[in-house]
Amino acid sequence: MNQVKWTQTDSRLRMNKFLSVIALVLATFLSGCGGGGGGSGENGNEQVVNSIQTTYSVSTLSLSQLLSSPFGISSDSSGNLFVSDTGANSILKLSNLNSATVSVSPYLGDLVSPGSDYSTCDNSNLYSPFGVVIDNLGDLYLAESGENAIRYADCNRALLSNTFSAQYGDQSLSGPKGVALYGDNLYVSDTGNHRVKLISKTSRGVGSTRLLAGTTSGYVNGALLSAAFAQPTGLVVSSGGDVFVADTNNCAIRRISSNQVSTFAGAGPNQTGSVCDSSDGAATVARFKYPTGIAIDARNNLYVADTVNNKIRKITPQGDVTTIAGTGLSGVTNGAGLSATFNAPTGIAVAANGVIYVVDSGSGKIRKLSPDS
């Protein structure tokens, strides 16, 4: 298996990057999909699903400051991006996305001299933030993996003179990595416990946590509390309320719907003849290699950061999987989608205009996939 290569400096930020991000993007993968040998791609089962599909051009955002070790990403209704810079223990706001140089500013956490508590956005001393999402009020929710907690933050300085940051929900988590909003409900990938949890909002900034699905590490479909995941990471919710989970170590996209867990695309290692690989096709014919990030558009198409394959994949509501960007080689080449290269993509977000933003964690960059007209 190709390993994701990271550089390490003697700075504290790079050490955080090594300890925090490699734990998911590299070390976790090594214990994942079992079994060797050729997958469906090597056996000639790859299928062309759609004769006509949207094509993309890939570019790299020029940022006003370098990122240490980005992982998660979310967009708001005003066209801003919010990125969890895991190595710098902060959430950054990216604005003026169409400018020659995109503005980057601290949003939650202090890069220079973080405080010792969490009472305001400026003094929050974050520890390994991963997944991040922002609601229509401008309130931020993030998976603070190093604290085994979910954090809520009201950092809207335009409306309030004082900002607020606090833990959200009952904390019984282990290394949570993903968060997704659907109405007043926050869905959480409790990665280390191999479960999906639900935090129901009781008042602004306050929620109550319960187990939604999962038992222990494994690959089992069926009833919610009998199903099994293996290191679930990113998750999203469709317009109809179905929850889709990037089940990273099972190399599959799972669906939680009607009190059942099923495999929507890809296949877990316990399924006869399956393997973590790279191939397009219909539903479980397709293969992924340790996917982490997942996003959804207004038409309920899913977009997956297929991390170890260095590809961006699209899944239609019918389950058809295609590759929309990435050759599979590691790099930062821009250009036509299928000629571009990525380096361990993790977070992914779809803006209202159909532009896809990808956190290219291995290169520390934000990539932009623009639909071709």
Average pLDDT reading: 84
| Order of helical and strand elements | HHEEEEEEEEEEEEEEEEEEEEEEEEEEE
Largest β sheet strand count, sense and barrel closure? 5 strands, antiparallel
Low-confidence stretches: 1-24, 26-51
Secondary-structure content class: mainly beta
DSSP helix fraction: under 10%
As laid out across the biggest beta sheet, the strand order is 24-1-27-26-25
Report the span from N to C terminus: 37 Å
Morphology call: globular
Measured by DSSP, the beta-strand proportion falls in 35-45%
Radius of gyration: 19 Å
Number of alpha- plus pi-helical segments: 2
Number of separate strands: 27
Question: What distinguishing features does this structure have?
Answer:
373 residues; mainly beta; 5-stranded antiparallel beta sheet; 2 helices
Q: Would you spell out the secondary-structure blueprint of this structure?
A:
Blueprint: H1 12-20, H2 22-30, E1 56-60, E2 70-75, E3 81-85, E4 90-95, E5 103-108, E6 129-134, E7 139-144, E8 149-154, E9 164-167, E10 178-182, E11 185-190, E12 195-203, E13 206-213, E14 222-223, E15 232-237, E16 243-247, E17 252-257, E18 260-266, E19 281-282, E20 293-296, E21 302-306, E22 311-315, E23 320-325, E24 335-336, E25 345-350, E26 356-360, E27 365-371
Antiparallel strand pairs: 1-24, 1-27, 2-3, 3-4, 4-5, 6-7, 7-8, 8-9, 10-11, 11-12, 12-13, 14-18, 15-16, 16-17, 17-18, 19-23, 20-21, 21-22, 22-23, 25-26, 26-27
Report on the architecture of this protein.
The chain is mainly beta and 373 residues long. The chain is 5% helix and 39% strand. The chain is built from two helices and 27 strands. It has a five-stranded antiparallel β-sheet, with no helix packed on it. Strands 14-18-17-16-15 form a five-stranded antiparallel β-sheet, with no helix packed on it. A five-stranded antiparallel β-sheet has the order 19-23-22-21-20, with no helix packed on it. A hairpin with a 7-residue loop joins strand 4 and strand 5 (103-108).
